[in-house]
Amino acid sequence: MYIPEELLYDKNNYWVKVMGEEVLIGLTEYGQSTTGDILYLELVPEDTVLPRGEQFGSIESGKWVGQLTAPVSGVVVERNRDIEASPRQVNAHPYEQGWLVRVKLIDPGELESLMGAADYTRWVEEQIRLDEEDEVAL
Amino acid sequence: MSKPWRLLDTGIRPIAENMALDQVILTARSQDQVPDTLRFLQFSPHCVTVGYHQDIDLEVEQEYCRQHGIEINRRITGGGNLYLDAGQLGWEIFAVKGLPGIPQRLEELYGRICEGVVRGLYKLGVKARFRPKNDIEVNGRKISGSGGTEAGNAFLYHGTLLTDFDVDTMLRCLKLPVQKLEDKQVRSFKQRVTCLKEVLGYVPAMSTVKNALAQGIAEELGVELKPGLLTDYESRLLQQKELPRFRSEAWIRGQRVGCQDSRLSTADYKAPGGLIRVSILLDNTRDIIKSVFISGDFFAYPRRSIMDLEAALKNTSSRATELDFTIRNFFDNHQVEIPGITPEDFYHALRRAILQASRDGVEAM
Fold first, then answer.
1. Count of domains in chain B?
2. Pair (B28, B90) in one structural domain
């Protein structure tokens, strides 16, 4: 499972790349793997104000409509229109072409609550272990 | 022992109410206002629903629906277009994520819940099985589809079980890959679905079906069910907020994702073992096979394998490399014998239909 060292993460499996006052947000490789092949993806328009934890779009795979929830508060500066047309880019290149939105931060202090790569790796390993336990119980 | 689940039967309602209740109960569950719930629902008048992201213009024969009093609405869950009448029983699970026995991974979650429905069908004498990703089938023929969504830490997963089915009306009100086919192929297409009436030779009482499914789901998930009603909170949310929204044109016809299309094409491919006819609905903008119907004069063993191949191709990429992978993967993992026809022949037949759809730009409208 590839988890880039330089990014920040939350427990909803988003990565956050800090670029000065702005951040780029995407789904992690683990996040997209739990979702499966993405069929539709819809993102909120530019200038939308996103409180942390609020929905910034929807994502459909295997007849499941999931919510995209903001890992930090901000204003959407740009949404990735290419992935609305080719949502499988999120599966294929989650850290590159598959980024979701670029956001101007409202409260940079929120970044401190995100995990670094080492903590996120441990958290993912724990989720995989719990999933495996579930499978054994089935 | 975990808390009992609510067993909720909301009876027969119009589609807008049923769709609004999906949102209401999911919201109430995510706010911890109600317990985990198994809901049964039925539909009248007859109706069509489309998936959350679908475009009604591309999926529904709206003029036919208007002429025949078929209501149209949109689900909050994913998946394709559906025709629903009194012969369908809806089953729905509202629960919080992370419950013991409910897996995190979506594909495992689908399987676990559908196994509960399968267990219920066995109690009725129906040897059903789960077919990934979302179907329940009997001898390869679909008897229940399913889909889901989430809000906060809660999720909804639901499906409709065919007890009886008016397949002719379905073929007229939905845009399906059969519009250019001859009667023989349409008859073959009808074999893709079945219902309790066909399997058992009669339609069991709806109360019997509900009891069997409730028992099957409760046993599979290891939960206790306690009959209950909609709460005052849910009834208020329905009447004051969600029902007006789900009756609005903005909800029903609002376009969800701009960049999608739907093109229908049919192509024949002559292989040594016989003719393969492929009828395909293609989203050419996004290179996705929406659905495919394969017929011809070849012999496949087991017979269900072509239906399984169609299910494996649904909503997959139409690009050459990925199509090749999907077909090879299918034949590598299924014991299929088709004298005189190879996986490559299916690849060429499908590519021919895909290229024709791309070239024609003939929209299925």
1. 2
2. yes
Give domain status of residue B365, yes or no: no
- Judged by CB atoms within 8 Å, which residues 198-237 of B form the interface with A? none
Clarify whether residues B228 and B352 are in a common domain: no
Q: Domains plus CATH for chain A? A: 8-137 (2.40.50.100)
Q: Is the pLDDT of residue B365 over 60?
A: no
Quote the CA–CA distance of B223 and B263 in Å, as a whole number: 45
- Tokens for A125, please give them: 């390993």
Q: What is the DSSP letter of A108?
A: G
Global pTM value: 0.88
Q: What is the pLDDT of residues A95-131, one digit of tens each?
A: 999 999 999 999 999 999 999 999 999 999 998 887 7
Rounded Cα distance between B76 and B221, Å, is 24
Tell me the chain A residues in contact with residue B285 when contact means C-beta distances shorter than 8 Å. Answer: 85
Q: What per-residue confidence (pLDDT) applies to A127?
A: 86
Residues B112, B190 within the same domain: yes
If 0-12 CB within 10 Å is exposed, 13-18 middle and 19+ buried, where does residue A122 land? exposed
- Chain B closest-CA separation from residue A19 CA (Å): 29
| Residue B213 and residue B132 in one domain | yes
8 Å CB contact of A127 and B105? no
Question: Which residues of chain B neighbour A138 with C-beta distances below 8 Å?
Answer: 101, 103, 108, 112
- For B103-244, strand residue ranges (E) read 129-131, 135-138, 141-151, 154-162, 225-228
